[in-house]
Amino acid sequence: MSYPQNLKYTKDHEWAELTSDTQMKIGITDHAQSALGDIVYLDLPKVGRELKAHETFGVVESIKAVSDLYSPIQGKVAQANSDLASEPSKLNTEPHQSWMIVLEASDAKAQFQTLMSADEYSAYVKTL
Amino acid sequence: MLKRTALFEEHLNLKGKMVDFGGWELPVQYSGVLAEHTAVRTACGIFDVSHMGEIFVEGAGSAEFVNFLITNDVSVLSIEQAQYSAMCNAQGGIVDDLVIYKLGHEKFLLVVNASNTDKDFAHIQSVLAQYPGAKPKVTNQSAQYSQIAVQGPKAEAILQGLTETRLSEIKTYWCKEGKILGTPAIIARTGYTGEDGFEIYLSWSEAPKVWRALLETGSAEGLLPCGLGARDTLRLEMKYALYGHELTDESNPLEVGLAWVTKLQKNSDFVGKSAISALKQSGPKKALVGIRSLGRGIPRQGYEVYAADRTTRVGQVTSGTSSPSLKTPIGIVWIDKAHEAVGTKLFVKVREEFQESEVVKTPFYKK
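^ Those are the sequences you sent over. The predicted structure of the assembly is below.
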């Protein structure tokens, strides 16, 4: 598995991509989709919802398992990807391109820097 | 330390994703549940089910003893015929569900669930100790037997390449003792997928060679090795019960859809009969039915089920998934009998939401 260098990662197996100083896209990692297996359901939060870091923002289900989704940072849901929710198998085929939500925070850039780098995440996954 | 089957190394070579299943280290999937499920429905899949238990009952009095032990009736079986049954405790609760193969006039093979094998064997021995009739020999030979399930419309053609036994002569729920690649095997036309296919019982040490030959012969036909994930979705689409989900030590066969294998009229007493008869008199209160979600929410084991008023709790989900064949969420629910009719609206509590669902005919999947 390879993890794009421009993304940052969490121990909850989410990735984040900084799209401006105040916004980032959130998805789940290749490791997460592989552990889940064939994904058949995605439940996303309403736009406008305020999330704390590590707060549950949604649910992803594979044929076999149910898994919560955790917000990497504190912020407000600016967008939710309803196209992805109607075609959740994309999370298996292109996990790092399949964003779930856009989070907005005035200090998004600073919060982004606190997350794990691709190399740190790769090393972390190997310990599991 | 988890137990491993004779095919453990094969699973690793095939990149199987290994999990703990009732104390056994087995693959939940190789290529993916959807691909494996589809292979079985359209071509062929092979499963390592060596964790299942094999208990033999042999010698004088076998037929009478087995009939005393189980709810179904083996007196109607011919040699080489198989039968599905429940085995109950004195309270009428299900100790296990099993398949019985009549291998000889006084020789039966009882195939039981892996996680129940020790419990079952102890139960059988304690029943035998108090059994007034002729006592047959009961042996747990699970450690000597591997089991490979070959399932799907192409199963017969693929397996035929490895055996001289004429498979077309084995009818559904019958078996023959023969050889596969020269190795003695019991070849049974049984399964847990809803497809045509075979379950083969052979010696532990010979299983890897047969497994590899099946892969080699079958891969051009679309055969895939399949894990526990696909085994579960395939059985769920047929509404086949799984011990620990639909069946427990507390469930009475009449309340979990097993009346058809409970022969209260058979010409012998059996363990649990008086409790089951009493429930038949008073009337079963619960039923196991299939539901389909009318939205996206997937029912899962343990979720609560409510009546149309969304307030009255009427039962719970015992198994559920997103059906790979039907592309819709399905579930098996254990509910108050008043709500069992096809078309009845029910609500499943999926996290914080009530998912509207309806009772449907089963099996969910039909050819």
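Residues 8-105 of chain A form a domain with the OB fold (Dihydrolipoamide Acetyltransferase, E2P) fold (CATH 2.40.50.100). Strands of chain A lie at 8-9, 14-20, 23-28, 39-43, 50-51, 56-62, 66-70, 75-80, 101-104.

Shout if you want it in another format.
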